[in-house]
Each structure stands twice: as C-alpha cells, then as structure tokens.
Amino acid sequence: MLRIALTRSSRAMSIASPSSVPDNEASVRKIGKALETYLKNSQQHVAMMEKHRAEFETGRRHLAKMMSLDIHELDQEAIDRAIQYLFPSGLTDPKARPVMRPPDEVLPKFQRFTFDEEGKPEGTRFFTLNPKIYGLMSEIGVKTQSVMKFYDEHVGSRSVNKNDLEPANLSGSQWITADKMKKKLSEKFSNELYAQVIIAFEHLASLPGSAIEQKFLSEFREPMTASTGSKLFGPAIPEVQICAETNRRFAEVTTHCKDTRATVRVIDAGKGKYDIDGLQLHDFRHLQAREILLAPMIISQTLGRFDVKATTSCISNSLPEAPNREPLKRSGGMSALPRAVRHGTALCVAALNPESTEPLRLSGLLTLDPRKNERSKVNQPGARAKWIWKRR
Amino acid sequence: MKPCGRLVFQVARRMGACEQKISSCRQFSSEATAHDSIKVGTLCEMELAVAKQLNMKSHLPAPLSKQMDTLGEIVTLIREPIAEIASCMRVVDKNLPNLRLVLWGAFGTGKTVTLNQAVHHAYSNKWAIVHLRSAMELTRRVKEIEMSSFVSGRINDPSNAVAILQNFKQQNQHIWKILGELLTEKDYEWSKSERTLKSKPITEIIEMGISAPFLASDCVGALFRELRRHAKDDKLRVLVAIDDANSLWGKTLVKRADRTYAPPSDLTLVVHFRRMISNDWTNGCVLMVADKKEVADARDELGVSRHTPLELFGEEGFEFVEPFVPIETTNYTESETDALYNYYVNKNWLASKAARSEEGRKQLMHLSAFNPYYYERLCAFN
Amino acid sequence: MHRLTHIGARSKSTLADKLRNAVGGADYGKSKQAMVSGSLAAKDENLKLPYSQGEDFRELYVMPKRKLRGQTQLEQATGRAEIKTRSRFDLMDRLAERPPRSEEMDPEKQKWTDIWPAARTFSASVVPLPVRMGSRPNVEKRAPFKKEGNLELVKIPNFLHLTPVAIQQHCEAIKKFCTPFPPELLSDASLTPSVLPISVQYSTYIHQGTNIRDIRSRVITMIVDVASLKLSENALEKLVRLAGKRYNQETGKLTIITDRCHTRKQNQDYAHYLLTVLYHEANKQEAWAELKERSDNLRVEFDGSTTKSKLEDLIEKAKSAGLKTDEKALAEFGEMWKTYRNTEETAEKTREYGRQMKKMLGI
User: Fold this and answer.
1) Residue B277: pLDDT above 50?
2) Cβ atoms within 10 A of the Cβ of C253, count?
3) What is the pLDDT, as a whole number, of residue A339?
4) From what superkingdom does this record's organism come (chain A) (predicted)?
C-alpha cells in the first residue's frame, strides 16, 4: 500500500494528468510502516478477541450441557473442575495441564497506543521507546524542583508543619525491584534506566521537605520483610494443636526430602525423646544423622524440651505396582531420612516456639530442599558419569 | 540399689556365712560410704596394679583401655547392672546349681564394662575367675588348628588354649596358693610321654598346658573339670565371665579337611566353655554377654536389628543357657551423664571451651543420645 | 464419415460450445456445417457471397489479437497493467474442506452422548470446548497452545464418553438387571467372612496409547478366610505348613497370588484349583505324621521343654536344701515363656522374662 501511495503521488507529480487520479487518493496520508503495522495488528487483535470470546461463550454453553450443570452457576472454578474431570492429566507441572479460560485471561495482552486522527502519538515520549519510565523520571524531576522550592520558601516560617520540612521517612522499606517496576508501569526497560530512576528517587528522598511527597515515594517502596520472603519455600509453619488426652501442645507437618516422605509431630513438655519409625535417637549410628536430627533443637536452644514422633515412607513406593511383584526397596540415602525429619521438626518447633522462627529461618532449616535424584541417561553409567574416554 | 525382694533362699544364712567385701574403689560421690552396698551412680576407680593383674588392658573395650593409658587411671561408672550382679553373686551357694546371668542391651550401653567390673568384684571377694575375652576368638580368629587326639573329630586350637591358660594364671594370682592346695582327681595322660599324676596340685595342669601348646586344649578341659569339682566341694567359688558368649552357638570360620566350616560343637575349647556354662555344677556364677557382633552385618550401616537374648543365642543356645537371669544395660540418665561430665572436666579431658560451657554440656548429652559409647567418643573429640 | 460423426458427437457437449464461443462467436463453423449437412437452400444462400465456397471469412492478419509486448511493458511501467489475480493452487481442496463439526453443533439441541458415545482419542474438530494445553515458560507472553493440532491433548486420557449424563444413561439402562446390595452386610462388617469368605482382586491398567493390553492385569489375588473352611486342628496345622508365608496368623487369612498363566481367567481357575488341593491335602492324614517330634512343632510348648525340667530340678534342689519354693510362680513363668518364645521378641518382653525369672528365683 505504501508503495502504491508513493508511485501514485510521484506519478501525479511527473505526469500531470489530474483526471486520472481520483480525489480520495490525493488526500492519502503518508503514514509510516510502523504505524501501519500497528493499526493492522490492532484490528486483527480486536477481531480475534471477538471471535475467541464468542467461541468461549459457546464452549461454556456446551460444557454446561455436557456436564448437566446450570449455565448461570458455571463460574471459572466450576469450569476448572469440569475440565479436570473430562481431561484427567497426571502431569506434575500445573502449567502443562489443560485449561479453559476466557481469552482475556489467557491470551497475551495487546499493547495499545493512543494516536490522534493524524496518526501522531499522543505524547512525545512515544519516540523515546520507554515512555512510561521517562515519564516517571520527569515526574521525579518536577517534584524535586517543587520540593526544593517549597523548602526554600517555608524554611524558618511558622505557617508550615515542622514535620513537612523533614526528609521523607522511608524506614522499614526499600525500593521496589526492577521486575516489580516493569509490572507496575507495564513496560520493559533496561537496568541502566532503572538505576537512573533509583538515583533520582534517592536524591528526592534525601531532600529536606520531601515529606510532602511521602505518598508518591511510598508508591514505589515495599516493606523490608516482603522481599526476604515471608512465604517459605515448601510447607508453611503449621498450626499448634492440643492433644486431647495428655493436654500437651503439639504441631504436625508432612515434608519430604529426596525420596523420603516424613510426617513429623513435635510435642511440647517432653523429655527430648525421639521415635522415628519406632527407632530411637541412639539407633542412628552415624553422628551426622544425630546432628541433623538435633539441629533444630540446638539452634532454638530447646534441647530436651520437645518430643519428636515421625513416620516415613518412600515416595516412589506409593506408585501402584502389580501385586505379584515385591515393592522396589528404594530409599533416599543415609541422610535423606534425617533431613526430612529435621525439616518437619524445624517447622513444628517454629510453630511451638515462635521466638525461634527467625534463627531457624536464617539457618535455612525451614526451607524445603527440592533436589531429587537426577535420572541416569542412556549410554552413560549414571547421571553425569561417563565411560572412560579414549582418545582413539 | 540395695539387694532386696522376696527371697526364696534364706538370706540370713548367707549374710552370716560369708562377708561380701565391696570392691575397693575410690568413691567420687559425696555420700560415699566404704562398707555399704555399692552405690549406684558413682564413679569408681580400679587400682592400676589390680587392673594389671586382671589384664584389664586387653579385656576392656578399646576406647576405655586407651583412656586408661592417657589418663593413668581406670574410672568407670557404677550403674544398676553391676549392682544387680553383685547381689546375684551374694546368693551363690554350694547346694544350688550355678547361677547364670546374661548381660544384654543395645550397642554401647556397657555390657563389657559391666563384665569387667564384675570380674573386679570377684577378685576382691577372692573368687576364682575364668575370664574369656571374646568367644568369637575361639570360633572366628583361629590361627592354626590341630585335630584332637583325645576325641576324634574335635578340633584343637593351641594358641587360644595357651592364651586362656596364661590369662587364667595371671588373673588368679590372688588365690594361687589356694589353687596350689587343690589336688587333681585322677591321672591325666596328655600324651604317651606327658602325664600328670593323681593328687597333684592343679596348678601343674596349667604349667603343663602353657609349656606344651599341643596339649593346651586338653589341659584347659581338665582344668575346668577340676575347678568344677572343687567348687562343688565348696573349696572355692568360681566366676565364669564370657564376653560375646552367644558366639559359642554362632558362626565359625574354621575349615575342616573337606573344606566345609566346622560347627562350633566340633571345637574343643567351645565344648569346654559350654560345659562351664552348663547347669550341673554348683557354687558358681556364670556371667555371659549377648553381643550383636555375632549376627550383625558389617556392611549394613543403617539397619537396626534385635539385641535380645533369644535372637542372639539362637534356639539351641537359648535352651542350653536357660534358666538364666537377663540383666539389661541401658543408656545413661541425665545424672549419670552429669557425673561423667564433671569427671572429664576435672581431668581436663574435654579440651574445647565450648564443651565446658553449659550449652556444650547439654549438647554433648543429647548428641550422644545418652549412649555411653557415643558419649565417650564425643567427649574424646571435644 | 467417421470424422464427421466424431465432430457431430462433440458438437453436442457444452465444452464444445464454450470453445466455439471463445473462438469466434456462435456463427463459427455454422456455414460449413450447413454446407456439409447438405441443405440446398443453405448452399444457395451462400452461393451469392464471395466466400460462398463454404469458407469462413479469411481475415487479413495484420497483428495478433492480443496486447503486444511493447504495450504490456508500457502498461507495467506506468502502473496501469491489469494484475491478473490467479486463484490459489489449492483452491479446490480448500473449497472441499468442511468447517469443523463443532461449529455445526447447537448446545441446546445437541446431545453430547450421541456425538461421543464411546471412548475415543481427542479430536479437536469435534469437541466444542476451547480448551488449551501446553506449558509455556512465560505465560504472559504466549498462551497455552490451542486445541487444533495439539498432540498433548491427544496423548492424555479423556473422559468425554463418561460425562455425568452418560453415566446416568448407562445406569438407567442396566438398572433392570441389578439387585440391591444386602443391607445386613453394609451394617455389620463381621458377617462378611462367613457370607463372602473368598475375595478375588485384580487390576486393569489404562495406557496413553491405543494399546489396551497390560501384562499385569493377568495377576489374581485370592484371599480366603480359613476359619470358614472348618478344618480340624491337625488339618489346620497341615494347611498352615503347606501355605507357608501365604497364611497370615493374626488375621487368619490365606492369600494366594497367581500370575503363572497368561490370562486372568486361567489364573483365577488356577487359584481355585490351588485352594481345592490345599483343602484336600490338609484333610489327609499321612502315616509319617505320627513321627512328629517336639522339635517339629510350629510353636514351642513349655511342658516338655528342657527349661521346665531344669527349673523343676532347681526347685527340687532348693527344696532339699530346705528352702521355700513356689509352684504357682512356675506356672506363671510357663505362660510368659510360651509368649516369649512364640511371638516376636522385643526388649519389653525380655524385661518381663527377667522380672518373672527373678521373682521365681527370689533374687
């Protein structure tokens, strides 16, 4: 289309034949290829979304009829359950399983630009390729100027609240990470730009009088603890329960390490007794095993206070084998069982003894170890080991 | 633990007839009384001279004997098992068949140590001691064998037999004179040339065996027979202490001429010891240790097997050894651990500062799982 | 003549008409035809004309009736050339393609059970649900793959043939052949072994492919309640010896797992056969069974053991020495000894043994 436009106009210039060129073509706009593509994509996207929405709606009606459910009660949860029923997938990755979601949730979002009727973008920052972050930087610059002006005008005067003349209070929080900022502005930018923005923010925050911009600054701050992960990787710290018969507090949790799944119950007001699959602590012959099992108590300094009761099983043995076969004796290894029990014990101790949560977390005992045995590959003796390499 | 309980046998006669002397030991606790019954929970020292005579260096477990060299003294904890044994030994009588005791317990809870403490106790009460370091030596560590001329099919073990006789001689020095007064019952014809005549002191049998290894196994048998006879006649009391006694019914590594393994009943020394255990003589006490060494798999690091007497002795051994009194050895209690901890601190055995702190004390206690063996090893490295 | 009929036959076809029209209009060859067909009047008509010989007008060839090379080039250069739009090479294939069947379905009127009556691999054109499947590293960038041409959806099993509606239809259809489960068995679980003493278990295995076979489905587990066989004591002991590990003492159940035949039915027959043989063999009394000794017993008895004789001996000696003895303690000890020898040995049981022994000997 572009080429036609060009040749037609050039033709109009070179061969002056006004009658052959119709009127609407004389007013054809000289639009760039990028904008042209954008417009085409935009129209296509809109059409596609319409089609998908209609398809989804029909699909919902079909599903309701298939599963004999009321169409008005068919919310997303019900759809998920129905799809799980119809397509039972044993895949472990939840992202790999079949889904049926409205296209607005599932399909990638289309970036909309606003243009005026002449095809010019609404803001000049469009041409910087990172409009939103440059916009943010401009905003910071403007606010910096205004804060300095405010301070200069009102320092020493009594008409202004004393607190407003202080620098902004940003304790207990930190600047949001680059990823979060990208999500917030819904724009991608380089790390250098992010660094520049943070420098600008820091300068603004350090100015006296920046307390007036507290609200603006706190939009880009997140609390300290949030980044260090208040969410544990693995099972969370369990709730404390009370045993009915003995009236002692206890906590119970199920974790795993390598191939061993362990259900651990830690009971308060005890003597430091261990009962792991019927074995006592002295039945663990290796010092390493005993150290592993006692580590949570040592760190939380509660030696001899808790009783630990644990049962373990092999994860791979829970798969159904034929009854005429002996179940394969697989185990995680020498330290796997103690480590699984240690993780459970640490979580329970953190529940029963909350002041020890921080030391336990810092020592890493509350984190699940996700490592599993690597599969051995064909043409190799093991997972990584290779046969003896011969040059010839 | 005072000896008490409903007594079937009249105790009054016992108490009057013989005074049981408590093994001489330096008490470490504050409530120590010299002539009282053995106080449980205290540390007791064995005099080095006595220890040397009783050959403790080779009979105690390796870590303890090394500690003996380093610290220059043997100090062990008096615990319930030895008190029980002491009270059982008081009951021994010439009219009653020998009292059999089996020490059993988990690994590292003090079976061998208790056995040696009992030997010391017997020494101080002037008993005759027949102490075997380990029955596994007879069945599995046989260096050279000889076919027996006395009974066909039996296998002699000269080196072990000589060792037994030498050990007996060394351990019974305190009653050597008494043994010298005991006389043989009959003529012993060891071989065509050697013989011991009737009514000779039995110490001659011992000398004969030590000097002639190829006769030693038979000498051992004869010695044991004489001891039993004299015990029946109330001339002396005998304590038979066998460590790893369940190996007497276990696996052998002795090969016969046709390249099969000989059963333990084919070994003369095993037969002799079995006779010492059997019920037909009186005025004695047989103390045996049921140890897992016999049945445990050295390559199995993680498995936990049973340590109970029936499991370890096997059906045949169990029925032979019955009726016996099982005496269990257990892990330490907190107070026992504390006593030992204080001793180590006093001796500067615990080297690091962390070990001497309160937190260190608790950690040592719990990390060892209150097991005596693990506790000793942990303290040695801290 | 042959040639003329040939022309005459072709002349009736529409293609021929088309060709004719394309070349020179409707009149092409008509005069010639007329001449050939022999109509005098036509011949007379044509005589007067200069080309009355039955020929067409021979046009003078000046130039070809098409755009010449120069003109086309000029047109192309100036941009006025008519661009011939050619149809697609696969146009006919595309026209032959039908839209997906799911588009022709009406959710209100269509019954799903009619469309998908039996188990079938997933077919994207038939299933009207816009289901997506496919793991993407960055979900926001790219959606899971659509169902058309999606192998993953084909690989996983689907239960489109077993929707609740379908199941209800199945149940309705077979209801008239079924009787209700006895409520007495539901309420009282202890009745089951007497009413249903044998239970047979087997498994079916589903696979991701078209293959329905699995070798493990031939295995049969048959669990028999031995008490319901009503064997005599000797027969029971013989059965226990014959069964070995298959008999569980605590529950009293005999478990037979067979996999030695190729099919499930054969294995089931074999299991029944085994049970029959075991039962009859157990009931047989052999002559050599009389030779059974104490050491052959399954359980160790206190009476007749060396231990008992030794203990009695001990008590005798104690009596002769003039000491108190206790007969009751011996009986109690015997009971404890039996449990100790015949059940799993534990540390606690050994301690109990020790306590009893000490009580008896008075230590």
Assistant:
1) yes
2) 17
3) 96
4) Eukaryota
Chains that touch A (3 or more CB pairs under 8 A): B, C
Per-residue pLDDT for A187 more than 80? yes
Contact state of C357 with B325 under an 8 Å Cβ cutoff:
yes
Quick one: B284 and B143 in the same domain? yes
**Cβ within 8 Å, pair C363-B87:** yes
d(CA B367, nearest CA chain A) in Å: 6
How many Å lie between the alpha carbon of A290 and the closest alpha carbon of chain B? Answer: 6
Query: C167 and C214 share a domain?
Result: no
Distance from CA of C302 to the nearest CA of B (A): 11
Alpha helices in chain A (DSSP H): 2-14, 23-26, 33-66, 76-86, 103-106, 131-154, 178-185, 191-206, 214-218, 224-227, 287-300, 336-352, 357-362
pLDDT in tens, A73-112: 899 999 999 999 999 988 888 899 999 999 988 888 887 7
A240-252 per-position pLDDT tens digit: 999 999 999 999 9
Greater confidence, B200 or B7? B200
A135-144 long-range contacts, CB within 8 A, separation 24+: A136/A185, A136/A197, A137/A196, A137/A197, A137/A200, A139/A216, A140/A197, A140/A200, A140/A201, A140/A204, A141/A200, A143/A204, A143/A213, A143/A216, A144/A200, A144/A203, A144/A204, A144/A207
Size of interface A-B (CB pairs under 8 A): 42
Q: What is the C-alpha separation between B284 and B258, in angstroms, rounded?
A: 40
C67 touches chain B (CB under 8 A): no
d(CA A327, CA C295): 34
Q: In terms of domains, do B149 and B291 share one?
A: yes
CB contact under 8 A, A67 and C164: yes
Question: Between chains, do B366 and A304 touch, taking CB under 8 Å as contact?
Answer: yes
Min Cα separation A282/chain B (Å): 5
Q: What's the predicted TM-score (pTM) here?
A: 0.72
Of C306, C320, C361, the CB nearest to B8: C361
Q: How many structural domains is chain C composed of? A: 4
Shared domain for B188 and B267, answered yes or no, is yes
Residue A348 contacts residue A264 (beta carbons within 8 Å): yes
**pLDDT score of A14 more than 50:** no
Which of C251, C266, C294 finishes a domain? Answer: C294
Chosen from C313, C328, C342, C361 to mutate, greatest number of chain B CBs within 10 A:
C361
- Residues of chain C with Cβ-Cβ distance to B279 below 8 Å are 310, 313-314
Residue B47 within any structural domain of the chain:
no
Find the range with the poorest average confidence among B162-176, B280-294, C95-109, C306-320. Answer: C306-320
Q: Does B328 touch chain C (CB under 8 A)?
A: yes
Q: What are the domain boundaries of chain A?
A: 33-106, 126-223, 241-362
Q: What is the mean pLDDT of each run of 10 residues along chain C (363 residues)?
A: 46 71 69 57 56 75 89 90 88 89 89 92 94 89 92 90 94 93 87 91 82 91 94 94 94 95 96 96 92 89 88 81 69 90 90 88 73
C88 domain-assigned: no
Lowest mean pLDDT among A65-69, A324-328, B84-88, C228-232: A324-328
Considering only CB atoms, which chain C residues are within 8 Å of B307?
Answer: 347
The residue of chain A nearest to residue C115, with distances taken between CA atoms, is A66
- Contact (CB<8Å) A287/B374: yes
CA dihedral B56, B61, B67, B73 (to 10 degrees): -30
CATH number where C265 lies? 3.30.160.20
Closest-CA distance of chain A to residue B328, Å: 16
For the record, the structure tokens of B218 come out as 């038979």
**CATH number belonging to domain A241-362:** 3.30.230.10
Residue B352 lies in domain: 334-380
Using one digit for the tens of pLDDT, what is the confidence trace for B98-107?
899 999 999 9
- Smallest CA-to-CA distance from C322 within B352, B289, B96 is with B96
The percent of residues above 90 in pLDDT, for chain B, comes to: 63
